[in-house]
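Data deposition worksheet. Section B asks for the primary sequence of the deposited chain exactly as it was used as input, without tags or linkers unless they were present during the calculation. Section C holds the resulting structure in token form. Section D is free text for depositor observations; keep each observation to a single sentence. Incomplete worksheets are returned to the depositor.
Section A, Depositor: J.P.
Section B:
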Amino acid sequence: MRYSSSRVDDQPVRTIAPAVKLSVWAVAGGWIARKLCRLIVLIVTTPAALATFALAVGVAWIWHRFGPWPIIIALALTLAGLVVWRVRWPAGFLGWVRFPLRAWRRSWFVYRRRWVPAMDTAGLTLTRAGDEYVPSIIGVRSTLAVDRVGVRMLPGQTIEDYAAAAPRLAQTFGAPVCRVRSISGRVHELDLWLLVDDPLTRTVDPIPAAAEPLVDGLPVALAEDGTVWSLPLVGSHTLVVGATGAGKGSVIWSIICQLADPVRTGVVKLWVIDPKGGMELAAGRPLFDRFCHGDSTSAAYETAFADLLDDAVLIMRRRQDRLRGVTRLHTPSTDEPLIVLVVDELAALTGWTLDRTAKKRMEAALGLLLSQGRAVGVVVVGAVQDPRKEVLPMRDLFPTRIALRLNEPEQVNLTIGAGARNRGALADQIPDSLPGVGYVAVDGIAEPVRVRFSHITDQHIDELLTPNRLTLELVTETDRSGETDTEPGVAA
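Section C:
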């Protein structure tokens, strides 16, 4: 009688499958077939590759059917057309020819070629169950200064992961700086802005005025991607923070120059406070409806500043009474112009005031204007060197904040928001040789934008004020002749 054993052998049974022998030609043919299949899929799914393939087939057919001369003539005509397009319409040539070709070239020979090693060394790849997952490139768009690489993130990744790896990515792709930008409405995607050529190292000349500056914004600066950056003024207050010599005057004068035409038409009124005795802004006095710089010979030196702010509050409250139930945002007009209150040094009104009574009045008035004024067309543009709360208690009431060169890293987050420096706003590293360069943060936009404001010289100011001075001379001569008693108005 046979008995079954209870012992179980846990050693696996080794089997040897018979080897299948293939010829070298079969292996080579399979490899070629796989490559051809991938090439066909790439051509079909890529519009540029499909167009190139179709063009190559067409050229080959024409060459075979008619010879090389039609191809040579077509190439000559195409080249001549491109030259004419480049000379006559350079902006269109850049947008439709040069930028797309540049983006295609850099996409294939720079970014896609180094993409997998870059993601690996930057720590942005994931490995699960032996499989490696790499973030994918969506596309590349180029300008003369910046390559914008669209990226689809892996599950579980955040924009902060890429911001932390930005220096490594910049080094890998040979760019001085890499900035990470979110894409509105696309939570799984982001843009890598790789700076190829920094246009902000060169002085920015005054930018031509916009057709509708109060609607489209004031074109006052050049962004690092080479485009013009416009400052939203209507419905927003603007704070400018920068160390001595950082270029705060460039920001203020750029705004004043862009408002010259609306001031002449009566749609905007400039109320200007220059606590430096008028040293900075007195040159633009013909454009100002009110100009307060204090009188060193008067005991009420600081009271004059408080009086002007109180008058602005009075106008604000009167407009609130008229616009209540009519509209939620004031529309500038000649009957009710936009009042732009420009203060060159806010700290002189809030932190360094000797007169305690005047200081309380100014702080109260500024708080009311910043919290209620923008809806009724009374906006504030203020500049300060120190952004601390002890100096500027109402700092957070400015929707638009500009950080020029700062002395300390902590001041970056105080000026344009917590975490701004981690997202690339290195305002404390701006060199002294680049006045007017800074980072702009606007409420509702996640990342700060690096810009350089236009450099306004005394000659530019003289040219800007020439129409006002001619008007003043005509009015003065008319008064002297006794023909009219009209006052020179705001230019007085």
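Section D:
The first helix runs from residue 24 to 45.
Residues 405 and 427 are 5 Å apart (CA to CA).
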